[in-house]
Amino acid sequence: MSMQGDIEREVAQPGMPGSVRLAVLSVAAALLTGALYLIAMRGDALLVDLSALGARIFCF
Amino acid sequence: MQKAVAPAQVVGRPLWMIVLAAGVIVGMAMGLRQVAGLYLPPMTMDLGIGREPFSTAMAIANLTWGIGAVFAGMIADRYGAGRVVITGALSTMIGTYLMYSATNGTDLLISGVFLGIGVSGTGITSLVGAVGRAAPPEQRTAAIASLGMAGGIGGFVAFPYTHLLMDWLGWKTSLLVLVATCALMLPLAWPLSGKPASGDALVKPQTLVEAFREAFRHPSYLLLTSGFFVCGFHVAFYAVHLPAFVADQGLDNSVAVAALTMVGLGNLVGTYIAGKSGRFVEKRVGLSLIYFGRCFVFLGLLFLPITPTVVIGLSTLLGLFWLSTVPLTSSLVATFFGTAWMSMLFGVVFLSHQLGSFSGLWLAGYLYDGTKSYDAMWWVSIALGLFAGLIHWPIKERPVARLLPAAQQA
C-alpha cells in the first residue's frame, strides 16, 4: 500500500462528527416516529388510496 | 489483494459528508417518487381524464427511470454526480409542477417523462458511484447501505406525510409544496460535484464502450443482472398486491397497512445488516441467502393459516430481505470492475430490476384474473427466488484481470 494511498485514506476517512451524527439520527427518528403515528391514525384512509395505486410499479 | 484505498472523489470532502448529502438526496427522490400515485384519484376526478393517462404517465416515468439510470450513471461516472443531481432535481421540479398545472392527459404524459428523468438523476443508481468511489473497499458496502436506508426512510415517511398534506392543503397546493421540497436537493449537489478522479495510475483508463464490452462478457455480472430481475419481480408484486391478497383472505384492511409498514421498517434493519455483512460473509452468499429467505416467506403465505399475526410476521421477515440486495449487488459491480463506471453499470443492473417489476405486476394480474387466486403467483415467486438464490452462488467475487496490476501493488 503506497504512502499516497495512506494519505488518501486519511483525507477521505474522517468520521462523522458526533454532533452531526446526533442530528441525523434525531431527524431520522423524528420522521419515522411521525410517519408511524400518521399510519396508525390514518391507516384505513391510506390504504384506500394505496389500493388505487395498482397501476404504479413499486420499486425502491 | 485488491488495492485497499479508493481516492476521495474530491480531496477535502470527507466520506461522511458525501454519504450524508447523497443519502438525503436519495431519500427525498425515493419519497417523491413513491407519492406520485397518490394523486391519481383526485387528478383524474378533477381533470375528468380517466385513469389511463395517469397510469400511462406513471408507466412512462418508470420506463424513463430505468433507461435514464444508465445514461445518468454514465454522465455521473464521467463528469461527476453533481450536475446529474442538479439536472434530476430540476427535472423532478418541472415534472411535479406540470402535474400541478396539467389540464389534460398529454400534460400528464409529459410530466411523466420529466419525473422519470428526475428520479434517474437523483436516485440511488446515479449516486452509488460517487459514494463507491469515495469509500475504501472495506467500507463501500456499508456506505452504499446507508444510501439504501435513506431511500427506505424517504419512501416510508413520504407516503403518510403527503397524504396528510393533501388533506390539509388540497392536492394542487400540496404539489407546490413538493416542488419546493425538491429544491432542497439543489444545494446538496455541491458535496457530490467535481469530476471523478482518473483512478489508479497503474490501471489503464477505460472508455465507455470498453466498459460495456467488458461487463457484458463477464459471467458473474450477467448472473448478478439476472438475479436483480427477480428482486424487482418480488418487491413489485408483494407491495402492490398484498392489500388485495389480505382482503381476499377476509382480513381487515388494517392488516395490510400494518404488514406493509413492517416491510418498510424491516427493510431498514435488513439493509443495515447487509451493509455490515461484508465483514462476515461473501456478498454472493448474502444475496443467495436473501433470495432463499424470500422463498420461505412465500411458502409461509401458501401453507400457514393466514391470520393477522402470520401476515404481519412474514411481512416483517420479508422486509429484512427487501432491498438489502442493493448494497450487496452494487458493491459486487464495484468488486468486478472498479468504481470508474460503477453508476452506469449498476444502472444496467437496475434496468433489469425495473423489467422484473413490470413483469411481476403484469403476471400477478394475469394469473389472478385467470385463477382468481394468488397461489400460482406465490409458486412463481418461489421458483424465481430459488433461481436467483442458485445463480448468485457461482459468482466469482474478484476484480477483472485489468485491475490486477493495481491490486498486486497493494
What order do the SSEs of chain B take from the amino end to the carboxyl end, as H and E? HHHHHHHHHHHHHHHHHH
Figure out the total of helices of chain A. Answer: 2
Shape of chain B: globular
Extract low-pLDDT stretches of chain A: 1-12, 54-60
Strand proportion of chain A: under 5%
Mean pLDDT of chain A equals: 68
Distance from N terminus to C terminus of chain A (CA atoms, Å) equals 38 Å
Number of helices of chain B: 18
Using only C-alpha atoms, the radius of gyration of chain A works out to 21 Å
Shape type of chain A? rod-shaped
Q: For the record, give the distance between the C-alpha atoms at the N and C termini of chain B, rounded to a whole number.
A: 6 Å
Structural class of chain A: mainly alpha
Task: Give the integer mean of the pLDDT values of chain B.
Answer: 89
Question: What oligomeric state do these chains adopt?
Answer: heterodimer
What's the helical proportion of residues of chain A?
over 70%
What does the main sheet of chain B amount to?
A: none
Give the largest interface.
A-B, 42 and 67 residues
Could you characterize the architecture of this molecule?
The complex is a heterodimer of chains A (60) and B (410). Chain A is an all-alpha fold and 60 residues long. Chain A is 73% helix and 0% strand. The radius of gyration of chain A is 21 Å and the shape is rod-shaped. With 410 residues, chain B is mainly alpha-helical. Chain B is 79% helix and 0% strand. Chain B contains 18 helices and no strands. In chain B, α13 packs antiparallel against α17. Chain B is globular, with a radius of gyration of 21 Å. The N and C termini of chain B lie close together (6 Å).
